Amino acid sequence: MEWKIVGIIAAICTTSGFIPQIIRGIRTKRLDDISPVMYMLLIVGLSCWLSYGIHIEDMIIIVANAAGLAFSIFIIILRFKYIRQR
Amino acid sequence: MEWKIVGIIAAICTTSGFIPQIIRGIRTKRLDDISPVMYMLLIVGLSCWLSYGIHIEDMIIIVANAAGLAFSIFIIILRFKYIRQR
Predict the structure, then answer these.
(1) A57/A62 Cα distance (integer angstroms)
(2) CATH assignment of A2-85, among 1.20.1280.290, 3.40.50.970, 1.10.150.20, 1.10.10.10
């Protein structure tokens, strides 16, 4: 049971980590230093985790990776939006 | 068995994603737009995943998260190094 809590903390931290990045990007209107290749790889990887979560019917894996996937796509869209606006 | 492959692809993508970010940072000597809060959260989260992997003795989880942890710490050190050098 305590290991389930470790897993939940891990999932919350690694998923919510995208939120300060989004806030920073919106505030500064700059995401130039972020690697688009990193986020492309994350999108592929998180999609795999999500399908794996659906397969094993694990709600923590599904929710964490669906949110992480949405955040990653949003960050990459924001990055190109801000670059094009300059 | 095929789901194990999905897990391995997921682990490779989400972990190796840090590498293009490190390369970009070293090349441009700028990581200003990266959120340090994001990487702090990642460090906590990946540490939890790593201890969970050690607990369940899963080599994929151990290796992927140990590497991700090392990369995250390196990115955050690089960020502050480049900011201080200016």
Answers:
(1) 8
(2) 1.20.1280.290
